[in-house]
Design brief:
single chain; two-stranded antiparallel sheet; 13 helices
């Protein structure tokens, strides 16, 4: 383990200084609500703060460097990296993650915005519950509308169905993706973890409010992305690369071969032993619905353990740590000795889970770095409280997973694919 003074010592990354590390420490413990750019397009579970991502990217990279998130989730790392002039790359096995991240990182032109606005104006009168229902077809037959057909939820289901039937009137994939994302955001507001489901009228009003906010967000993001060098999103090559795949075996992916090594790997991987629903909404208690996949138009046939490296009840979390080992060996193979790895992780029992986690990273070829001046714990790391996250509800009592830790490593052993 390298203990790094914040003074530009030989062991510290070339761009790191005392001020940048102080900013990371402050950002890691910030309780400010998520805001800015396209970050509020969707509340992806266990997302981390854009302020934290921004501070880390500024500390460990320079403009033009590559930033990679192998578990990109809601795309926070990619949005911030692109906005700061870095080359951003992300992967994830969840089709919902891929959809949301593309919606957040592919901005609309003013022409796109005008067409989406005109579409929305025409759409609202068509969202009448007396209108003939648009059949769910394969989505209903596949169970994607499960648990949203009750007396309180069917108006939302029908409104969503009517709206989705009009998405095809938009001209481009970019416009249709944006419209679906606005419906996804409103559907999550209406159905996910709510004691009282809103009316169809409230849904329509909230949809228009969210659509307006998202349009302002995509404009702000486009300005940051283009940085005055081009007049429209189509003319820039700064749009992040999002790939739907596992981090395991990424070193053999020919589509990504020219993109690595990254200067920074910034991520929040699945948490060991922590229950997080990355692919479902919880309706009226614990009843789960796969409706998000119906809304975005992407099939999904996997259980929750597929997205979390295995069942959290597995003895010793063997499946989790096996997947972790394979993933980080692959990440070591696309890294260089200049690559810094920064993670935000929570544990149900850090006393044994954290040492095992760190052992796997060391085995893969990553050495932990400590920055004493920003540590807030006796172990020399930054720990932060995470109140009110819905994945805590699955745990009994006050769990250690209510705290996350910032782990900073560097690649010290460059591996080959041979």
């Amino acid at each position: 383990m390298a203990k790094v003074a914040d003074t530009g010592s030989p062991e510290a990354p070339r761009t790191t200084n005392s001020q940048s590390m102080t900013e990371i420490g402050q950002a890691a413990q910030s309780s400010e609500p998520v805001s800015g750019l396209t970050h509020n397009f969707y509340r992806y579970p266990a997302r981390f703060s854009p302020t934290f991502a921004r501070a880390v990217i500024r500390a460990f990279t320079q403009r033009g460097d590559t930033v990679f998130d192998p578990f990109m989730g809601g795309g926070t790392t990619l949005v911030e990296a692109a906005a700061l002039g870095r080359k951003a790359i992300g992967t994830d096995i969840n089709p919902l993650s891929l959809f949301v991240t593309k919606a957040k990182t592919i901005p609309l032109s003013e022409m796109d915005i005008a067409r989406v606005q005109n579409w929305a104006v025409r759409l609202i009168p068509a969202l009448n519950l007396r209108s003939p229902a648009i059949t769910g077809g394969k989505w209903a037959e596949g169970g994607y509308q499960r648990n949203i057909g009750s007396r309180s939820t069917w108006p939302i289901r029908k409104t969503l169905g009517l709206a989705l039937g009009h998405v095809s009137l938009l001209r481009t994939d970019r416009q249709r993706r944006f419209a679906r994302c606005a419906l996804l955001r409103t559907g999550q507001w209406a159905l996910d973890c709510r004691a009282t489901v809103p009316s169809a009228k409230q849904f329509r009003e909230q949809f228009l409010e969210y659509l307006g906010e998202m349009i302002e967000g995509t404009r702000e993001y486009a300005r940051a992305l283009n940085d005055g060098t081009s007049s429209s999103p189509e003319e820039t090559n700064k749009t992040p690369l999002c790939v739907g795949r596992s981090a395991i075996g990424i070193e053999t992916d020919p589509a990504l071969a020219t993109s690595f090594p990254p200067a920074l790997i910034l991520t929040s991987p699945p948490y060991p032993g922590v229950h997080v629903l990355y692919h479902r909404w919880q309706v009226r208690g614990r009843r789960e619905t796969p409706a998000p996949f119906w809304i975005v138009g992407s099939p999904d046939g996997n259980g929750s353990s597929y997205y979390t490296f295995g069942d959290r009840k597995c003895l010793g979390l063997e499946s989790y740590y096996d997947h972790l080992r394979r993933a980080y060996h692959s990440l070591a193979r696309i890294a260089s000795t200049n690559t810094v790895l920064v993670q935000l992780v929570a544990f149900t029992d850090p006393s044994w889970q954290l040492p095992r986690y760190l052992g796997i990273l060391q085995e893969a070829g990553f050495e932990e770095m400590r920055f004493d001046s920003i540590a807030n714990s006796e172990d020399g790391r930054i720990w932060r409280e995470v109140p009110h996250r819905k994945w805590h509800a699955a745990l009994n009592g006050k769990a250690d997973s209510a705290k996350e830790v910032v782990l900073i490593h560097r690649a010290v052993q460059v591996r080959t694919t041979a």
